[in-house]
Amino acid sequence: MPLNTVIREKRKEAGLTQEEIADYLGVSAPAVSKWEKGSTSPDISLLPALARLLKIDINTLLCFHEELSREEVIKLCKEIMDVIQSKGFETGFLLTMEKIREYPTCGYFIHTAALLLDGAMLMAGMNAGEKEKYLGQITSLYEQAARYGDEQTRIQSNFMLASNYTRTGEYEKAQKLLDLLPERSAIDKRPLLAELLITQGKTDKAGELLERRLLMTVQEIQMILMKLSDIALKEGQPQNAAEISKRSSKLAELFGIQEYDTYAAPLQTAIDQKNVSESISLLKSMLSSLLHPVDLGNSLLYRHIPMPDYTADIRNKMLKVILRELEDNDKYSYLHSSEEFEQLMKKFRSVQVK
């Protein structure tokens, strides 16, 4: 077993709480919790006392004879892959199971080996009947990895299990595992959850889930492009900044977002360069788009989710805030002597959105 599993299981066997372990060792309860999750490890000076507290020896605590390093796992998996390529999948599969019997509690190795077998089986071009012989055992490997692996390995193994259960129609099992996965991690569970909903005929919920993810992703892309444009400017590369901003402005057409939002990155570039004519042109487009917002409720891409209603009152307030910002913020001072800018301000001060 890995160190975190040893601590967790031996603590429970000893009838101790995380708080009691923390008190005995002079650390915090959250620190002990992190040890058991595998996200951190105890300081080396605490190991003898921790071993005594758990009534085990240091060798057992550190799993010297059970855990494999990342390098050892890579070496073993290469050996397995070489056998599969030279002697066939069946021989490689048997070798994998033999190695797992040697390291039955090394979650990371078991998970990696299961992934390797999954991929090799696909590459072998087996038909459904041939795959059936191995699928159950590979699923058992993911279950074994989830039981003994650290937090990240458990997340990855449970994700693969949920995917396998969805494929075999075991939807209740898949749902339970998906519920265990964190909302945000290196693995995004939403596409798989949407697939599960679709198979159950719940297309409206699947559509809502994916549309919200799409909208959030587009907004994140916008923000990233703005930051990249800003970085290019700070590095003295205005042409790169302009090109990045140009790509940001295409998002409205591609993904059906408000046109107003797409001017933020190009405008930031024009402001940094103190480009009067370009800034005024972009401001004119931005303010005009505010008067005529896109009805995203009728969008092809967002028809399952409620979209904000940009009422006339909201748009009037937004317009006043923007105009005040243009007048008062020093970063726009380079525009204040421009007659064209003054005409622009005069025009939109008199506008009343209906």
Automatic annotation (TrEMBL):
Q: Which SMART domains match?
A: HTH_XRE (SM00530)
Q: Does the keyword DNA-binding apply?
A: yes
Alphabetized Gene3D superfamilies for the sequence? lambda repressor-like DNA-binding domains, Tetratricopeptide repeat domain
Q: Which InterPro entries does this entry report, sorted A to Z?
A: Cro/C1-type_HTH (IPR001387), Lambda_DNA-bd_dom_sf (IPR010982), TPR-like_helical_dom_sf (IPR011990)
Is DNA-binding included in the keywords of this UniProt record?
A: yes
Q: Which UniProt keywords apply?
A: DNA-binding
User: Which PANTHER family does the entry link to?
Assistant: HTH-TYPE TRANSCRIPTIONAL REGULATOR XRE, TRACRIPTIONAL REGULATORY PROTEIN-RELATED-RELATED
The name this protein goes by in its record: Transcriptional regulator
Please tell me the species this chain comes from. Lacrimispora amygdalina
